[in-house]
Amino acid sequence: MANPANNVAPKKAVVYYKKIVNWGWDQSDKFVKIYATSMNGIDKLPAANVTSEFTDSSFVLKIVGYNASNHELSMTHLAGEIDVAGSYHRIKSDMVVVFLKKTEEKTWSHITDTERKVTEAKDEKKKMNDEEDPEGNMMQHMLRQMYDDGDDERKRSIQKHLYEQRQKERRGEVCD
To answer: Given this model, what pLDDT does residue 9 score?
Structure first.
C-alpha cells in the first residue's frame, strides 16, 4: 500500500515583493527612462539580484535582497510601444534606471495609456462644466486665485465665508 504523504508535490517558496513607490520618469527621442530612486547602496547588491523583463507594452523591474526585502516596479499598458530587445536597466549608486527603447521617436504625454485616458476624461469633464456654467466657474477660479495669492488673514476670511455658505445651504436658506 502506497503512502499518500509521499505523493505530495513539494511546495514552491512564495516570494513577496514590496512595490517601489519612489520613481520618476523622463524621455528623449529614443528612450523613456524610469528612475527607481531612494535606493542608497543598491550598487553594492550583486547584479544578478536586479532583473528586468519587457514586453512591447509593459515592463517589470525586480530587486531581490535589497535592505532585507524584495522590491518590484511594474507598469502595464505603457503609453507607447517599446522595443523589447533594445530596452534594459542600469544600476547606479542610489537608483536603478530602466531604459525603455521607443519604437517610434515621438513624445509621450504620459507614462501609461491608463494615465492618459484618466487625464483626458478629467479634461473633458472640466470642459463640459465650463460650457454649462462659465460664469460660475469664472467666479470659482477667481476665488481660488484670491485664496492662493492671499495672506493668512484673507485665506481665513475666504474659508469662513465658504463655511457659512455651506451651512446656509444645508439649512435650506438662500445664499448671497
So the answer is: 65
